[in-house]
Design goal:
This protein is mainly alpha-helical. The chain has a domain of 97 residues. The strands form 2 sheets. It has a two-stranded antiparallel sheet. Strands 2-3 form a two-stranded antiparallel ribbon. Helix 1 crosses helix 2, helix 2 packs antiparallel against helix 4 and helix 4 packs across helix 5. The longest helix has 22 residues. The protein is globular and about 55 Å long. Pfam families: Transposase_20 (PF02371).
C-alpha cells in the first residue's frame, strides 16, 4: 500500500525520521489511529493509547500510586515500547531526558513509559505539521531561551 500511495509514503517517511521509529512502528501507529483522523489534540491521543495517568483516591485520602490507565489501545502501547528504548539509547536528547526522570523517580520503567508518551506526541505533531524531525530543534530552542533571558 505504501508503494501505491505517494501521500502515505511521504507521511511515513516523515515519521521514520524520528529516532527509534521504524517503518513497522510508523505504519502500526497510523493504522491504529486511522491516520490520526479522529484525534484533535495530544491529550486525546495519549488517552486513546492508554498512556494517561490514573490516580486512585477516595475522598481526601490518596490510596495508591499514580499509574498509567491502560484503558486505551494496547497495540499502540505495545508498538511504542522498543522504539522508546531505541530512542533512549541512540539519541542524546532522549537519553538526557530518560536519565533526568530516572534520577528523579528512581524507576526506569516509569521513565521508559514517559518516553513512549513523548514519542507518540511527537509522531502526532510531525504528522499534522507534515515536516521531518529536526534533531537540532532542541539545541536551537535552548540557545534561543538562553539569549532571551539575558
Amino acid at each position: 500500500m505504501l508503494k501505491k500511495n505517494s501521500v502515505l509514503k511521504q507521511e511515513t517517511d516523515n515519521l521514520i525520521s524520528i529516532p527509534g521509529i521504524g517503518l513497522l512502528t510508523a505504519v502500526t501507529v497510523l493504522a491504529e489511529t486511522n491516520g490520526f483522523e479522529m484525534i484533535r489534540n495530544k491529550k486525546q491521543l495519549v488517552s486513546y493509547a492508554g498512556l494517561d495517568v490514573k490516580e486512585k483516591q477516595s475522598g481526601t485520602s490518596i490510596l495508591g500510586k499514580p499509574t498509567i490507565s491502560k484503558r486505551g489501545n494496547r497495540y499502540l502501547r505495545k508498538s511504542l515500547h522498543l522504539p522508546a528504548l531505541a530512542a533512549i539509547r541512540h539519541d542524546e536528547h532522549y537519553s538526557n531526558t530518560f536519565t533526568r526522570l530516572v534520577s528523579k523517580h528512581g524507576i526506569k520503567m516509569k521513565a521508559a513509559v514517559a518516553m513512549q508518551r513523548k514519542l507518540l506526541e511527537l509522531m502526532f505533531i510531525i504528522f499534522k505539521s507534515k515536516q521531518r524531525y529536526d534533531s537540532q530543534y532542541h539545541i536551537q530552542k535552548q540557545t534561543y531561551n538562553q539569549v532571551a533571558t539575558k
